[in-house]
Amino acid sequence: MPAATVVRRLLVGAAAAAVAGLGGLVLTRLAADPVQVPLDFAEYYTAGHLNFTGSNPYDGAEVRHFQHDLGMRGTAIMMWNPPWTLTLVMPLGALPFGTAYGLWVLLNVALLVLSAELLWRGFGGPARGRGVAYVLTLAFVPTIFLIGSGQITAVVLVGVAGFKAAARAGRWGVAGAVGALTAVKPHLLGLFALMLVLDALRARSGRRVVLAGLAVGLLACVPPTLLNPDVWAQYHTATTGGDSASHYGVSHWAPPLAGWWLRTGLGLPFAVQFLPFVVAAVGFVAWYWRQPPTDAANVADRLPVVVGVSLLAAPYGVWQFDLVLLLVPVLATAAHLARRPNPTGIAAGAAVLLCANVVGLAMMMNQFESKWYVWFAPAVLGGCFAARGGAAHALHRRERRSPEPEPT
Length: 408
Fold this sequence. Notes:
The protein is mainly alpha-helical. The chain has one domain (29-233, 247-392). It is 69% helix and 0% strand. It has 18 helices and no strands. It has helices at residues 3-31, 39-52, 60-69, 86-93, 97-122, 130-139, 141-149, 153-168, 172-179, 190-202, 204-227, 231-240, 258-266, 275-288, 296-313, 327-339, 343-365, 376-401. The longest helix has 29 residues, at 3-31. The protein is globular, with a radius of gyration of 22 Å. The two termini are 43 Å apart. The model has no long low-confidence stretch (mean pLDDT 86).
């Protein structure tokens, strides 16, 4: 076996061991928290159980009563995802809580590993380097947040990853069907949805994507509606209402977003949080309409930017666990550097990512409020840009130093 291969495997193994040890430390710390029930999983389990039994999954009083029986105190932790999400969580609600949570953790880990594999393939990463994708995914601080809280964003990530892999293979129907999973949290990837609509207006492949996605979305609406025909009206009432004695409304929370800081800094209404997305959407349409119609190569170039800007301009959410979607630009950059290794680019990207992870981990261990993570997405995206820019600059310098071929 070549020495380089042995060294690479040893490094990947050491990194995996470090990730496992660090994950164990963090999960031990989380388990020692006074709150014994994983809050975010509890919201999905509660909503799934209530809708499965024909009750209102968006009623704060019902949710609070059910969660009190789980051992939670205080206000209800509501599920704000659209009703089609209930198709995924109702099977959990039919199980005992402990069993459901154990299965959910295993499912999340499996989805994260699958996402790493699909993104690595979709962005053309060499097969021998897929271990890098796994380590980057499992060592990412938002991954620890996601697994520890029992969130659902891994479903969104595998939707993006599956879309990317299918698009690279030119399987547009599959891309749309898998990409429909991103609608579990539609507020996170607004520009991604806008890109699909624009492509549907210009290309047959784009229309196949949208039609397949709509078909999957409509099918996902059937089970929760059959079990609870009023669920759509209940969702509308909950999302348009404010705080109550049993729960907090959407506008109450403080996400790590530029729009939230703008709104609260100037004392403006909740609608102001949508301003960054409106500006980004207008600029995106103006730019995107001048691009060539979508094909596999174009999707590969655009998706990391589309996902990154969507997270920066999102009107709501992008909590610490939602930042796991930054793995799209991170793994795209890693795959690029794996195909064209460059010490300058690798050093730049690794330094920024390591610093972001260390600071994010320190903030998590010290229980900083969510709003203070507003720097994380710009930092990681800046690291990806620096890595690619450093690699391109180094390549340009080498080309300038190389001697011109002598005329024959």
